[in-house]
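In this supplementary section we document a worked example of the pipeline. Step one takes a protein sequence of length 100 as its only input; no multiple sequence alignment statistics are reported here. Step two produces a three-dimensional model, which step three serialises into structure tokens for compact storage. The input and output of this example are shown verbatim.
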Amino acid sequence: MHHDLEGLSAIVTGASQGLGREIAGALAERGAQVVLAARRRELLETAVDEIESNGGRAIAVPADLADTAGIRLLIDAATSAYGTVDILVNNAADEGPVRR
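The serialised model returned by step three reads:
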């Protein structure tokens, strides 16, 4: 296991399943602290449990990123947990314009 991302934090959107979940796991394996974001809480929590069972650090942030309130929630949670965001993987599905 490489730890070349040790001390860095990452947000991965669309992280409850598929490619986003795989990317979150790979970042955690490399040592990053990962914030997983998506709308489906149960799937996010399962992904976080998987990362933590492999020795990684992760938190789940259920949020609708088509809404500016969801974006604010995500940023606040990430900075509260890890202080800063070093890596952003924007994998959220496009569901139209951001709602204000």
